[in-house]
Write a structure and sequence with these properties.
Elements (H helix, E strand, L loop, with lengths): L2 E12 L4 E9 L5 E4 L6 H9 L25 E8 L6 E10 L12 E10 L13 E4 L2 E4 L2 H13 L4 E6 L3 H13 L4 H11 L16 H17 L5 H18 L3 H148 L6 H82 L13 H77 L13 H38 L7 H9 L7 H7 L4 H10 L6 E4 L1 H9 L11 E4 L10 E2 L2 E4 L2 E4 L9 H40 L5 H132 L12 H12 L6 H29 L3 H5 L5 H50 L15 H34 L22 H34 L2 H4 L2 H12 L4 H53 L5 E4 L2 E4 L1 E4 L3 H28 L5 H7 L2 H8 L6 E7 L4 E5 H4 L4 H20 L13 E6 L8 H13 L2 E7 L4 H4 L5 E8 L7 E9 L22
Parallel strand pairs: 2-23, 3-21, 3-22, 10-11, 20-21
Antiparallel strand pairs: 1-2, 1-4, 4-5, 5-6, 6-9, 7-8, 12-13, 13-14, 15-16, 17-18, 18-19, 22-23
Helix pairs in contact: 5-25, 6-25, 6-26, 7-17, 7-18, 7-20, 7-21, 7-22, 7-25, 8-16, 8-17, 9-16, 10-15, 22-24, 24-25, 25-26, 30-31
Length: about 1450
């Protein structure tokens, strides 16, 4: 791990948002640092925040505060940590951007925070380093935190920039989270260390003291910490413990299986030999049983077949009778339907005529009403014309009479009378004027009302005409859709072969639809049933075929077995001959004569003696090979000097590196010439240890307290290249002492060294070849011995082979005959299957047709439902059209009347206007008469009198009288005419007095009346035609109903909805033809039925047989008697043969059961008893026997191999586990390798771990391991015998703790640490550490932790470098227990020695603490001036170098940016 260069927090809120960090940076420069903050100021929070980017989610929380609780808004918080990479490799920025998750972002997510972590590697400071990365923006001289979304977009852009090594990771995504931590591991930032160590030591203040609380003694420390650390380090490439568990599981199970294998083998061979005869007898028994069952089954199938045929024929006969009856009924029904259709058609004709008559009568009545109305109007107009003449003559008469009267009184004073007449006339005219105005207003209102009604009717007509257009369009669509159903109906009948037609009402018979649906369904079910039946027959035939083929295979197998057996026996016989010859050759190696070929014991003993001699020679050669290999290792490693174990241990205790001179020469990288010169100048280098000055000084000051058997030369590393000038030839003179030194310079020359190594390798290989030759000779003699030892060949076996071969030849001939018979039967069954399959293919096509038919019928029904709806809709549309047309006709008639009324109103209004004008003019003449006496006379009399009095009279009295007489005659004539016509026309006076005569109106009225008369006459003629046709239709309908009663005894025709118009004659002829065909079929069925009944009677004695396997029965009914007789004879013969063979099988099994070898042996006893219980079931007996024989065969195959392999397997397992324990042992000793520091003037190794000498105790460890594995083996075997699983036993015992403790002993690991007091230091055991004070215990825990971290990080392949990789420890208030200077100084020295950066948060002070740190930040909480109760954390760099670049600190306002989404 590298070290932390800088830490930066942006927008961090804590203590429930009462404490804030705007933007603070802490420059650490990879050095130890102390951050001082008062208690309660947030030290634990800052530690929690620094750890957050390097641990998984569940490790971010502390006991007191959940990580997510710090983030309460959508404004992000940034935690940035810059690492200074080892070896000047640059910088690594690790950062976390976190905010409270918005509800809209992902409603289904359980995450409450949005977290993005990012990593940026760079060589030097840049615009995206920890100081410059643009997470804060400047706007209007204010700094604003960049929003989460914008920052994520920035990260995405940086990620895509190929010039940058930048990536970001969504920590809510498990995949990217894993990628993030994998990336950190590339920089040796291991999240497991942060989670298991840094997290643990910060659970509470000074938490390091609690890290080893469960390890109060050395045993606990080794078990809980040292061994797991060693296991993890050794488990880099593979999990060796898991491999050992699997190997041991396999070994134990193999070991259990190999007990008493030899005894078992002999018994197995005997059983297998006896089983051959048993199997032969069983197969004969099975064959006989199968034949009996086959005959019985065939007879049962014949009976079932005939019964089924008889039932089918009876059903067929009944069905044909029912069909004939049904066809006759159909003919009658068709005739009835034909007559019914005629009745309905005639009734429809009558209904249509009646509707036409009613409609025509309505038209006639309407025309008659209009005609009478016109006549009445003409009469009124005629009366008005006479009334006008009447008024004219009356007026003229009155004027003349008055004029005559005036003439008689011309000498009298007329002024008062004229005034009274004028006053009276003025009143009358005023009243008439008012009446005229009122009548005019009435006519105007009537005219207005008529205009409005006309407009309303016109609007209604417009709507109705639009509705007619819409309905007409709708009618066209519906008619088209209704018509389209005709094609669908025709298509269905054509495709599906049905005669489905709509009735005369254009609807289907619903019952007919149900019948067709049932027919289709029944047809489908029938076809499907037939297919299933045929499929079952196919299956039955296939089963039968399979049975026959199985029988054929069994026969073939049996034949093959017999042939193989015969071949094997021949082979055995040949092998026996060959083995005898081979034995003769083998015994020649031990100088035995050929006649001793069966002298078993003497042959084996002679081979054993020979093998023992060869093994002694092999052991001597192996010892020589070990010595050569030792020399070879020295040549390869350069260890010319060998130190004793004690000396190596003492040197390690002093933390002195052991570097051999020869090893240094090989790996210093110098050229050969320089190394030769170095050896020449100082010949002791290859035989010496190389140390630096400090190590030699330490060596001089502190004695090892150990003795040496020979001097050990030590050379200072600085003086390696210094010439000694002490050599004279091969003699070195050194202060009165001379040494003979002859160093082989070839060891320095890589090529020469390789030659030496090669020569030594060849020498070792030559020895190995000899060993291999000895091994091969041993193997050769063991092989020859084993051939004799495990051979089953005896003289008795040899003679028995000949007898068996003879018997097998006879059996092979019988099986061949059976094979030919089975082949014929199989061919017959295959033909039947072929025929059935062809039928199935046809049925499949029929099924598809049926499916298509059902689909078409379904489509037809769906279309029919739509058709019915359309037809109903069409009827409604037609009804609507008719109603609207009627409304339009009435409206148009009403408009015509209204127009006439409007015209009359216009005439009346004109008349009233004229009358009003006349009245107004007349009134103007009489307005001068304002007062007077009213005279009771008619208006005309008064006016005439007034005119006579006011004008000059020119006529004579006689003339006036003559004129009056003439006018009286005219007046009386007109008055009589008016009275007579008014009475005749029934016209009231008011009607003609209010009517104004107009000649034009008279002509128009006459024309209109003429037209209406013509229309009326035409309508009357049409009505008479309809009435005549109706009478004829009613007469014919009565005739048709009479025919129904006479021919079908039916009062009424068939329901109209059930009738379909069709070609009845053709349909009836078809049915008659079908009746003839059906009668013919019925006659044929009766003949077949009688034949079947006769044959069934002859098979009554076999009625108790049941069908076990369906087979096809093909019997000629004419030859049924002979076939049944043959079946009975065959059945009796097979039964007798079956009893005989069952008896033979029983005897063989009993003979085997009573043999001494099998009586008490459970391996054989239970299977034999099982076989005995299955004698009556030969097939099961055979399966069981084969199962037993096969299982015994597998057992025998493994017996010999397992016996030999089990010991080798055990040796390999023990050797491998012991090697692993040795590695563990050596690694435990390495844990204290970097724990030496100087305290005062003394060099102390703060942690000293000593273990027992491996080589000295190696044999003891082997014995312990063997015993340990044997205990596990015995325990596991007991579990297996109780049918228990041994996985838990092995897992619980094969682990690093138990293996090391059981073989070496965890208690043999001696752990010593120094107790540091103010004035002295003394070594104590780990067991005593718990008794130390809090500070001393903290220091001891730190030493252990530091050593473990150094050990885990140490690269064992680098033997020269003592460099420690950088490490970081963050501690919360570590000085609560460790504030004394005498404890803090070694703690800091240990940290420096292990290259560990300490970042300590504390509230304590004092020189004892401050003096230990080169980098100190003082953190203060400053109250906000703007927000009450809020404090801002500000840092002061109290001690340490400042970063070179200028840093500008400022507070900024936090604002939300505009959300993009």
């Amino acid at each position: 791990m590298s070290k932390i260069n800088k830490i930066r927090f942006v927008n961090l809120n804590y203590n429930y948002n009462t404490m804030k960090i705007d933007d603070e940076k802490f420059y650490l420069d990879g050095e130890n640092a102390m951050l001082n903050l008062r208690n309660g100021g947030g030290k634990s929070v800052l530690v929690q925040m620094i750890m957050a980017p390097f641990v998984n989610r569940r490790y971010r929380n502390t006991k007191d505060r959940a990580f997510e609780s710090y983030f309460t808004s959508g404004v992000p918080t940034y935690i940035l940590i810059e690492w200074k990479l080892d070896d000047g490799a640059g910088y690594l920025l690790t950062g976390m951007m976190v905010r409270k998750r918005e509800a809209a972002s992902d409603e289904n997510s359980k995450e409450r925070l949005d977290i993005i972590n990012f990593i940026h590697e760079y060589r030097e400071k840049n615009e995206y380093d920890i100081n410059s990365i643009p997470i804060v923006e400047e706007k209007n001289e204010r700094k604003i935190i960049k929003s989460f979304t914008n920052c994520k977009s920035l990260f995405e852009a940086l990620k895509k920039d190929r010039q940058l090594k930048f990536n970001y990771y969504d920590m809510n995504n498990p995949v990217t989270t894993k990628n993030y931590f994998n990336k950190l591991e590339e920089y040796k930032i291991n999240y497991r260390e942060w989670e298991t160590i840094i997290k643990q030591i910060n659970i509470k203040e000074s938490g390091l003291s609690e890290l080893f609380t469960k390890s109060k003694d050395s045993n606990g420390l080794v078990k809980e910490w040292f061994l797991p650390a060693v296991e993890n380090k050794l488990k880099v490439d593979e999990d060796r413990i898991d491999n050992y568990r699997q190997l041991l599981d396999s070994y134990i199970k193999q070991y259990r299986q190999n007990k008493a294998n030899i005894d078992k083998k002999a018994k197995l061979e005997l059983f297998n030999e006896l089983s051959k005869d048993i199997l032969t007898c069983c197969e004969e028994f099975i064959h006989t049983t199968e034949k009996r069952e086959e005959i019985k089954n065939y007879i049962a199938n014949v009976i079932a077949y005939l019964r089924e045929k008889l039932e089918d024929k009876e059903k067929e006969e009944a069905a044909l009778e029912q069909l004939i009856e049904s066809l006759n009924d159909k003919i009658i029904e068709l005739q009835y339907e034909e007559e019914s259709i005629k009745v309905y058609k005639k009734q429809e004709e009558i209904d249509t005529l009646e509707a036409d008559i009613i409609k025509q009568q309505e038209l006639v009545s309407e025309s008659e009403c209009r005609k009478n109305s016109l006549i009445r109007k003409g009469n009124i107009l005629e009366c008005a014309k006479i009334h006008r003449q009447y008024q004219k003559i009356s007026k003229e008469l009155q004027e003349n009479e008055i004029e005559l009267a005036v003439f008689s009184k011309k000498n009298e004073d007329n002024a008062p009378h004229i005034n009274n007449l004028g006053f009276t006339i003025r009143g009358i005219l005023q009243k008439e004027l008012e009446i005229t105005k009122t009548q005019k207003l009435d006519k105007l209102q009537l005219n207005k009302n008529l205009e409005e009604e006309k407009e309303s009717i016109n609007n209604l007509l417009k709507i109705n005409r639009n509705e007619i257009n819409s309905l007409t369009e709708r009618k066209g669509c519906l008619s088209a859709e209704v018509s389209s159903f005709d094609k669908l109906e025709e298509s269905f009948n054509s495709r599906c072969g049905f005669n489905l037609f709509r009735n005369i009402e254009a609807y289907f018979d619903e019952e007919r639809l149900l019948i067709i649906d049932k027919e289709i369904s029944d047809e489908g079910n029938s076809i499907d049933k037939e297919r299933k039946n045929i499929s079952e027959k196919i299956l039955q035939n296939e089963e039968k075929l399979k049975s026959k083929e199985s029988e054929k295979l069994r026969n073939f197998a049996k034949s093959s077995a017999v042939k193989n057996k015969l071949s094997n026996k021949n082979s055995e016989f040949e092998k026996a001959e060959e083995e005898i010859e081979r034995r003769k050759e083998i015994i020649k190696f031990i100088d035995f004569e050929e006649d001793k070929v069966f002298d078993y014991e003497n042959i084996i003993n002679a081979f054993d003696r020979k093998i023992e001699m060869l093994k002694e020679d092999e052991a001597k050669l192996k010892k020589l090979l070990d010595n050569l290999n030792s020399e070879l290792i020295k040549l390869k490693t350069g260890k010319v000097l060998e130190l004793s174990k004690d000396i190596e241990e003492k040197l390690r205790e002093k933390d002195i590196s052991i570097i051999y001179g020869m090893e240094w020469l090989k790996k210093n990288g110098y050229p050969l010439e320089k190394n030769e010169k170095l050896v020449k100048d100082n010949p002791f280098i290859p035989y010496s240890l190389i140390m630096d000055s400090k190590e030699i000084e330490l060596f001089e000051k502190e004695l090892l307290d150990i003795f040496t058997s020979s001097p050990i030369s030590i050379i200072n590393r600085r003086e390696l290249e210094t010439s000694t000038n002490i050599m004279n030839g091969d003699i070195a003179h050194l202060n009165g002492i001379s040494f003979f030194i002859s160093f082989n310079n070839k060891l320095l020359n890589e090529s020469e060294l390789l030659k030496l190594i090669d020569a030594k390798v060849k020498e070792a290989q030559a020895v190995q070849v000899k060993i291999n030759e000895k091994s091969e000779n041993i193997a050769f003699y063991e092989e020859k011995r084993n051939i004799i030892k495990y051979s089953a060949l005896t003289l008795e076996v040899y003679e028995g082979l000949k007898k068996e071969i003879s018997n097998l030849k006879v059996e092979a001939s019988e099986l061949r005959e059976r094979e030919i018979a089975l082949e014929k039967s199989i061919l017959s069954i295959k033909d039947e299957i072929k025929n059935y399959k062809e039928r199935v293919q046809l049925l499949e096509k029929d099924i598809q047709k049926n499916i298509d038919k059902a689909k078409a019928f379904k489509e037809l029904l769906e279309a029919y439902e739509k058709y019915k709806k359309n037809k109903i809709s069409l009827a409604r549309v037609l009804e609507g059209l008719s109603a609207i047309h009627n409304q339009i006709e009435k409206a148009e008639s009403r408009i015509s009347d209204i127009e006439k009324g409007i015209k009359e109103c216009s005439s009346a209004i004109n008349f009233y206007n004229i009358e009003e004008e006349k009245a107004s003019k007349g009134l103007a003449e009489f307005n001068i008469y304002k007062s007077g006496i009213l005279i009771e006379k008619d208006r005309e009399d008064l006016i005439s009198e007034y005119n006579a009095l006011t004008k000059d009279i020119t006529s004579s009295e006689k003339e006036l009288k003559n004129k009056i007489n003439k006018l009286n005659e005219e007046f009386n004539g007109i008055h009589s005419e008016l009275i007579l016509k008014a009475d005749k026309y029934e016209v009231k006076e008011v009607e003609y007095t209010n009517e104004t005569f107009d000649t034009q109106k008279e002509f128009e009225l006459k024309d209109e009346l003429q037209k209406e008369n013509e229309k009326y006459n035409n309508l009357k003629d049409e009505h008479n035609k309809f009435d005549k046709a109706h009478g004829i239709a009613v007469s014919k309908l009565e005739d048709l109903k009479g025919k129904l009663k006479a021919k079908f005894n039916k009062e009424e025709p068939k329901t109209k909805s059930l009738l379909i118009d069709k070609n009845f004659k053709l349909e009836i002829e078809k049915l008659k033809l079908e009746i003839v065909e059906t009668n013919s079929k019925k006659s044929d069925v009766n003949k077949v039925k009688a034949k079947i009944e006769n044959n069934l009677t002859s098979l009554n004695e076999f009625n108790n047989l049941n069908v076990t396997d369906k087979v096809d029965v093909n019997i000629d009914l004419n030859e049924l008697d002979s076939a049944v007789g043959k079946l009975k004879r065959d059945l009796n013969n097979v039964k007798a043969q079956e009893n005989e063979r069952e008896k033979n099988l029983t005897n063989l099994v009993v003979d085997t059961e009573i043999k001494d070898e099998f009586k008490q042996e459970s391996l054989f006893k239970e299977p034999i008893q099982t076989l005995k219980s299955l004698i009556g079931k030969p097939r099961e007996f055979k399966e069981q026997l084969n199962l037993v024989v096969n299982s015994y065969g597998l057992i025998m195959e493994k017996l010999m191999a397992d016996i030999e392999l089990i010991e080798k397997e055990e040796g390999k397992i023990l050797e491998s586990i012991l090697e692993y324990i040795k590695d563990v042992h050596e690694n435990i000793e390495k844990i204290d390798g970097n724990s030496s520091i100087t305290i005062g003037t003394k060099r102390l190794k703060m942690l000293n771990i000593s273990v027992s000498a491996w080589e000295e105790n190696k044999e003891l460890y082997k014995v312990r391991l063997k015993e340990y594995i044997e205990r596990i083996r015995e325990q596991s075997i007991k579990a297996l015998e109780q049918n228990e699983d041994i996985e838990d036993i092995i897992s619980n015992n094969i682990n690093i703790n138990k293996l090391y403790d059981g073989v070496v002993g965890i208690g043999t690991v001696n752990i010593k640490l120094y107790k540091i007091e103010e004035d002295k230091q003394r070594q104590i055991s780990w067991d005593e550490v718990s008794k130390n004070s809090g500070g001393e215990g903290f220091l001891s825990a730190f030493v252990i932790l530091s050593s473990l971290l150094s050990y885990m990080r140490k690269d064992d392949s680098d033997i020269f470098s003592r460099k420690e990789s950088g490490k970081v420890l963050i501690m919360d208030n570590p000085f609560a227990q460790t504030s004394s200077a005498h404890l803090l100084k070694p703690l800091i020295d240990i940290a420096k020695k292990s290259n560990t950066q300490l970042i300590c948060f504390t509230g304590l002070g004092g020189d004892s603490i401050y003096n230990r740190f080169d980098n100190i930040y003082v953190l203060n909480l400053i109250s906000s001036k703007l927000k009450s109760g809020v404090k801002y954390l500000k840092s002061e760099h109290a001690k340490g170098e400042e970063e070179k670049e200028e840093i500008i600190a400022s507070r900024f306002k936090i604002e939300e940016q505009i959300k993009l989404f």
